Amino acid sequence: MKTWSLRNKLALWSALVTALVLLTFGGVAAAGLYFRQIKTIEKSLAADSRVFFRELCENGKPSADDMDEAVLLLKGTTPLYGLIFGRTQGTPVHVYPENLRVLVGNWPMTPGYSTTKVGRKDLRVGVFVDGEFTLMLAADLHSVRDMVGDLLRDYLLAMPFVLLVGAAGSWWLSRRALQPVEEITRAAGAITTERLDARLPVPLSDDEIGRLTHVLNAMFDRLQRGFEQATRFTADASHELRTPLTILRGDIEEALRLGGFDSGQERLLVDLLEQTSGLQKIADNLLLLARFDAGKSPMVREPVDFSLLVQEAAEDAELLASPAKLLIHAEVAPSVKVKGDAHLLRRVLLNLIDNAVRYNREAGEVWLVLRKEVAEVVLVVANTGSGIPEDRRGELFQRFFRLNADRNRGTGGSGLGLSLCREIIVAHGGRIELSRSESDRTEFVVRLPVVVLVG
Q1: Hey, what domains does the chain have and what are their CATH numbers?
Q2: Distant-in-sequence, close-in-space partners of 406: CB < 8 Å, separation ≥ 6
Q3: What is the pLDDT of residues 159-184, one digit of tens each?
């Protein structure tokens, strides 16, 4: 499942936050405009009421003609929609327009402002009292609603463009901000066991990225020292073990050659010789792995007749397979050449064949297939073993990996063979993998680049 990059996530979250801020701002702005307009209408209604009462009462006790003149004075005044006028303790004498008569049932009204609905009209109503007279003025809110609606509509139309610009700006800013992280990622990816001395580029600014880079470089320093110490210890220990093991093996072989032992003693010496040979093999493998880890591979690259090596390995396989009555099948393409070290490649072949013979059933089969493809040499080593459990296949090429945890030499070697094979094949520019593992067939595939001979 493909995930979004951090840059795209930052741009998306920035756009979402911006949208939330804009919506909140737009809502607050629209509400503020609405209430400001309501306040303006209320001020206008209050001014109209003062004019009404002044015109009505300037001649003392108002007459019917004075009331008619005052009402006519207010009719059509912006934003006035209509009015109701009458004595506070009586009944209204003027209702304009007629549809406001539905409000007469509330007479006399309490002074103040309120919003009410008459028919389809939303009205802001103000009630004013002067002496014995009460005046109700109503203003239509249609223009206010239209004004607020136009503002919100224009705001919503403009918001996608604002969000697009904001998201693009956030994407650009996140790109600039994450560029040091990308450089650190590339530099860290280039640090391998062969380049443990490489370090991350340190930014000039002493910010969070700079401090992170210093911490990571210090961690790489510690890892390099630990790796070099472990590699040096493995190489030194393996090297120091080789001489006494060689002497011990020679002494045991000399003792067996001289003879003079009973059957029990002779069997003990043979067992000691086998154990010493196994220790020598482990020491040699550890030393070779340590050299690969340190980047000091003893490999000599030259054209090698790989077909000949595989054919010789097939003959050795027949000798190894005879005690278990295994059948060896060899299909070797002629004149297949690779560039590499014949000694190390032969070691790979012997390790794979030894595993194919060792982990096989009685009277089983072993296949060695060598073929040449367009740009690769393909070697297949397969057997009729019981297969490798799926949950253990990821550990297959790890050092000291063994299917049997008892470390019995009768059921397996030291657990270094496959890891050494991988190091050798990778050093030759190829790859090795478990291509198939079933109950009746286990198959390893080695792929090496084809050698190009000039002239």
Answers
A1: 6-148 (3.30.450), 208-293 (1.10.287.130), 302-449 (3.30.565.10)
A2: none
A3: 888 888 877 887 787 777 777 777 77
